Write the structure tokens for this entry.
Amino acid sequence: MNNVMALSGVVIIEMYRRKDFYVLFVMTALITLILGSMRFFDDDMIVRYLKEVCLLLIWISSLVIAISTTARQIPAERESRTIFPLLAKPVSRAQLIAGKFFGCWLACGLALIVFYLFFGVITASREHAWPMASYFQAISMHWIALGIVIALVLFGSVVFTAPSSNATICFIIVIGLMFVGGHLNKMALVPGMSGKIIYAIYYMIPHLEWYDLRDRIIHDWGRVPWGAWAGAILYGILYSGFLLGAAWAVFRRKTLTV
Amino acid sequence: MLGPLNTVVEINDLRVVFPSRELRGEAKLAVDGLNLQVRAGEVFGFLGPNGAGKTTTMNVLLGFVNASSGSASIFGVDVRQPIARQRIGYLPELTYYYKFLNTEELLRFYSRIFRIPPAEREKRIDAVLKLVELESARKRLIKTYSKGMQQRVGLAQALINNPDLLILDEPTSGLDPLGRMKVREIIQRLKEQGKTVFFSSHELGEVETVCDRVAILHQGKLRVEGRVDDLIQQYQCNLEHIFLKVVGGQPQF
Amino acid sequence: MIRLVLLLVFVCCFSLATVLQPHFDLGHRQDKSGSVLAALMGDSRRMFANQFFAKADAYFHKGFYPTIFDNAKKEGPSHLSEEAHEAPGHDEHEEGFLGPPHDWIERFGRNFFPTVHTHLQGGNQREILPWLQLSADLDPNRIETYVVAAYWLRTQLNKPKEAEAFLRQGLRANPDSYEILLELGRVYYYNNKNPSVARNIWEIALQKWRKQDESKGKPDVRIYEEILGEMVRDDQQTGDLQKLLPDLEALKLVSPNKESVQKYIDDAKAKMAH
């Protein structure tokens, strides 16, 4: 655990010394504030469109941060050769994978806190209310979803050598999972083998759409039942663990030549 | 736990084959049945022309590459175990470190990996920074360093855990005469402290000066091994000529 | 020397552009609304305008809305429009678009998004307004947008002035729209309490309808009926039987409740006889 936390610390330092997070946060804040300054039909109590835009930007930004940060971790270490002095220390490859995962995940978690705090301030300025349980569930589910994404990208980074192609492929997969993944069972109703294959894929893929509570937050539907929330968290943890295990299984056999 | 005569590094019948990257290409035999021992307290020179298998052997010792067959151990621990690297320091030929960190942060990170207690950590960092003369630049990001400074960072991180075995890959490559002298001094000091140094180099003059024993590799096989003095006496020439004879080149008179 | 030549070429091109530009008539390609968004997006703006109108409908349903993957297609106008045209009741077909879950994953997933058919109430209908505004900005010729927005503004949000302004904005882009005139008349009648102006507006609406739709194979009878219905209501309020009878006669021709209308005609005739 010591090595894992040491590696995580380095990833977090890298994230806050790069400009990505600041640029995305400023962009999110600017767009939200500009939209918030608009008045529609002389009504200053309209808030849901603002919540929608802000949450959409938060999701986009968090995915950009998560995928771009994670995609370059191991390939960049190999390319820049920093992996050699690192693995020459008493660090196992499993610890390296775990350390990179926790570093990216914790870094994204910190970013999420800042983003959601901003979101909370914006919505409180109009709604004068903070549904804490709902917000807590939204941020925790979002964080777990990012964990699955980070684990997926880490797996991709040990399979694909180029960070850019890994990031692009993972972006497409994640967008596909979020928009289409939950509906594959409807597409699978076609008769024959193709339907069975689609259904099999439907069961195998991570259901990221569960973690998107934006509609509930925007339209004030209140919190998700705690049992369902806990189930989703557990599912996310298990799926992330599975992907990390797969990443380690591939990485441990990789030849690293100086 | 050391073997006979305090063996620090033990390589038994090591064989490393790299599969071909092409569809019908041939696999590459990088190391072929290497047997080698490095004893405690000696400075061991690992020589050979380019492509001889030196770097591959080092990569096996460091866990970067899996052996196809045979075994290797450091301080009696199989090299595939991460704990085998607890007491070693490694200086790669090309030194690259996290550019977004400064030297102090880098050394703190590595010392944390070695589980150096926090109280001792700072003292150790101060000591190695003083040794490699980077005290004034400790807070600067590594990306602002010159090549020579980055080399010294490499040396600092190799020494941070006060290693019992130092593995150096072409330690004087790219250094000016002053830098090379510094490295020789450090190797000498480590030897006096009873440390073991295992390094590869093409600077045979330096090898002859600092090494106790050498091994010459060629085409993946061990061709010559022994004490420097004994080899010079046996071949009646200097180390460079021995090297050329072994690898099949002609000495230039 | 090369830099001088390049600078000269640049200046010549720029000058040529300023000389030639007025000679090209780009008016037919320019968006009439003058909106920057519309100018940037070209004809795809209509697609986005439709999307934003659907977004408003989704907001009206608090996020409970079918996706493109859901089997049941929404038929007929959205509730947003239905309520604007004061058509009663829910669409039972729409309530069932989710259907029973196919598997445990879908069942579990329904905990995380809206699954209950509901409408915004109690002034919260304001939340649909930004999307309607955006839709109108992108496609000023989308008449339904103005009518729906004005309906909610005047009936639930107590903003008749804003409703009127928005309708007039719609009229500038669609001067022949009887739907917008109908709704504008309602603003004057029900909110501004100005029945004479309302009446005039409805008369104009009726004229426009007759001019555009009467000769069509499938005229928009519903709007015609609504215009007549408002005029009949006004006539009944004022007690102007001279106008009431011909309006009722016209209404009877298109109303699905001919018996009810006939009763009103008979009552009016009886009153006239007295």
Remarks:
- The CA atoms of residues 72 and 163 of chain A lie 5 Å apart.
